[in-house]
Specification:
Elements: E1 2-7, H1 11-25, E2 30-31, E3 40-45, H2 50-69, E4 74-79, H3 80-84, H4 86-92, E5 98-100, H5 108-117, E6 122-124, E7 145-149, E8 151-152, H6 163-166, E9 171-172, H7 175-187, E10 192-196, E11 204-205, E12 208-209, H8 210-218, E13 225-229, H9 238-246, E14 253-255, H10 263-268, H11 275-288, E15 293-300, H12 307-320, E16 324-329, H13 337-341, H14 348-371, E17 377-385, E18 393-396, E19 402-406, E20 415-423, E21 427-432
Helix pairs in contact: 8-9, 12-14
The structure holds 5'-deoxyadenosine (5AD) and iron/sulfur cluster (SF4).
Length: 449
């Protein structure tokens, strides 16, 4: 059948869509770019915040209209929202034929057959404790970066977070299998690998920990950069910092979710670290990897957050000076501990005001941190034409900063030396260094390992 697959949410969902493509192609299904060419419309959904749900319900409304005109269109809701709102979707959205959670993708061919052949609805909610899809080779879209999920699920149960309920228990993939995937990725021409997990610190497979895995992936010939997301501040392995500092292929960027700077809020969130422990960790990271860039996630308006708590969060942001931050208003998620135990008592307008303040403060910090880059020369991995001006390129530094520049000789996947000559809040601008400029030889990495 002809399948249209739309992905919402995080990188893990992007990766899962690559798995879904692979599973369905191996059952002779094909993929189309336009919804109006499709016989099956699949939405791979996200449940992390309320606005993710709203976007998907909006999309389902579109599909309702379409299904009136095309009666045999099969509609499937997959992924986190499917797992989280399975009854609601099954009962209240009569247009939905298939509902399948993140551990059920291998059953999709069966579910599609059932829904298209006999008109029966197909549902599969099971969360497996073992499924890692390590036997499936994801079908990636061509590009510069390839994601590899090294583990699935999460056991941390932060009280605001739905992930432990939508993705189930934490399980790590075998390192040999991950390294084999990295070899395939390199052979396909990808230059960068990003290792994905809800909490990569707890990656463990027999004797191997996450630092060992990073080193093994970095040894893969053809892979020039290795990134990861995300670690948890509570159990950040010091060994990983030393490994990162010593290995030039391991990118000097850490996404370290703060969530809140107030001890009482952190406690209610079940983050299991204090403000001071977070600050000490940042100092240690910067002492071991001085050139590191740090980014974060912050939630404002969590249950019981007072003005004083919020000021503490701003205080940590100002003290740490993250290079950039993702900032969110708290939204209660079904099944979570916070939704069951705490009142969502910060008024919506206060959440909005706090979010605006966070954004203002972070914008000034990002500007300041970017401004000091002017004059520096960075090796930039060319990614794609710049969105604003397709004559220019967007690339990234090792620290994951976006750089826009002009170079008529470059192409995606090249490494070029760029001198930064202007800095904005979100991106840097630069010019290719012509003095001594050279495209780096592609095979230098064998000397690194
Ligand atoms: N409300 C708001 N933000 C949330 N996040 C996770 N759950 C919620 C929620 N219920 C944010 C956290 C997390 C990021 C991926 O999404 O900051 O790190
Ligand atoms: Fe959610 Fe916390 Fe797990 Fe991250 S570590 S996925 S925030 S429960």
């Amino acid at each position: 059948m002809k399948i249209f697959l739309e992905t919402f949410g995080c990188q893990m969902n992007e990766y899962d869509s690559e798995l879904i493509r692979s599973i369905l192609r191996s059952h002779q299904h094909t993929f189309v770019e336009q919804l109006d060419q499709a016989e099956v419309a699949l939405l791979n959904t996200c449940a992390i915040r309320e606005n993710a749900h709203e976007r998907i319900y909006h999309r389902l409304d579109d599909l309702k209209g379409r299904k009136r005109r095309q009666k045999n269109l099969v509609v499937g809701v997959l992924g986190c929202m499917a797992q989280n709102l399975r009854q609601e979707l099954a009962e209240h959205a009569p247009i939905v034929d298939i509902v399948a959670g993140p551990d059920s993708y291998k059953r999709l061919p069966l579910l599609i057959d059932a829904a298209s052949g006999k008109g029966a609805k197909g549902f599969d909610f099971s969360l497996s404790e073992y499924e890692t899809y390590s036997d499936i080779a994801p079908q990636r879209q061509p590009g510069v970066n390839a994601w590899i999920a090294i583990m699935r699920g999460c056991d941390n149960f932060c009280t605001f977070c739905v992930v432990p309920y939508t993705r189930g228990r934490e399980r790590s993939r075998e390192p040999q299998n991950i390294v084999a995937e990295a070899h395939r990725i390199a052979a396909e021409g990808f230059k960068q690998v990003t290792l994905l997990g809800q909490n990569v610190n707890s990656y463990r497979y027999e004797q191997s920990d996450f630092a060992d895995l990073m080193e093994s992936v970095a040894e893969v010939f053809g892979i020039r950069r290795v990134r990861f997301t995300s670690p948890h501040p509570k159990d950040f392995p010091r060994k990983l910092l030393h490994t990162m500092a010593a290995n030039p292929k391991l990118c000097k960027h850490i996404h370290l979710p703060l969530q809140s700077g107030s001890d009482s809020v952190l406690d209610r969130m079940n983050r299991t670290y204090t403000r001071q422990e977070f600050l000490d960790l940042v100092d240690e990271i910067r002492a071991i990897i001085p050139e590191v860039s740090l980014t974060t996630d912050v939630i404002c308006g969590f249950c019981g957050e007072t003005d004083a708590d919020f000021e503490e969060t701003l205080g940590v942001m100002q003290r740490v000076e993250f290079d950039s931050a993702f900032m969110f208003k708290y939204s209660p998620r079904k099944q979570t501990i916070a939704e069951r135990k705490f009142a969502d008592d910060v008024p919506e307008e206060v959440k909005t005001q706090r979010l605006m303040r966070l954004i203002d403060v972070q914008r000034e910090i990002s500007k300041k941190r970017n401004a000091v880059e002017v004059g520096n020369v960075y090796e930039v991995l060319v990614e794609e034409p710049s969105k604003k001006n397709s004559d220019e390129w967007l690339g990234r530094t090792d620290q994951n900063k976006g750089v826009v520049f002009f170079d008529d000789a470059a192409k995606p996947g090249d490494f070029v030396q760029v001198r930064i000559n202007a800095a904005g809040t979100n991106t840097l601008r630069g010019a290719v260094e012509r003095n001594g400029w050279r495209r780096l030889p592609v095979q230098t990495e064998c000397c690194v390992s």
